[in-house]
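Recap from last week: sequence in, structure out.
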Amino acid sequence: MRFDPPLAAGILIRRYKRFLADITDRQGARRTIHCANTGAMTGCAEPGSRIWYTTSADRRRKYPNTLEYVEDGDGDLICVNTMRANALVAEALREGRLEGFGESASVRREVAVPGDEAGRFDFLVQDRAEQTFIEVKSVTLKLAPGIGAFPDAVSKRATRHVNALARLARQGHRTMLLFCVLHAGIRSVAPADHVDPAYGRALRHAIDAGVTVRAVRARMTVQEMQIDGTVPFFRSYEAAPKKPALALGQTRERV
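Predicted structure tokens:
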């Protein structure tokens, strides 16, 4: 996924009303921009943080700029535009870069949940004779060096999704919950039980029911984003090994 033109830089003044952020651009001018993130954005919206944003050519938009990246206090880059997660997964599926799926797989987006026409899953993938329902969740909450968690706020919608995946798995369907890590400092993922204990319980029940849980990580620059591999998933934060975010010899990615 390429940004054309590349992202513009600025400094965050504040994020407010969930969907808005005030920034100063490189010229020092103040702008109000769109923030496509309904979560708490814990650790991802500190005033004074460096940020990067896109500009839409759509003249009908009240706020033509959209907040894309924030750099946290550890120097880690975070994509806070949650819409990017599904776009990255769709791209990886089309190009056959998502483990377990071939290039010939047929991909449908926003499919109805069987037995619940009001609900939607992000993807239905037909690969040879197998169908897989996939729900994608973006991960930006860093609990400790290297350890990310979902969700960052109580999410009844996310719990409904994971319960629906579990129900279909028990019926014999192939189902997958895919965590897309959009934080350069996260190297493993676990449920955020301290934030939403109901979600953590539902997730573990879904795993026991046969839902596949996988976590992938995005590489981010001002020019592009791309899924570049998997990271470990753990059933609980307590089970995740407490390691530094970067192994010896690694350096932080810079934009």
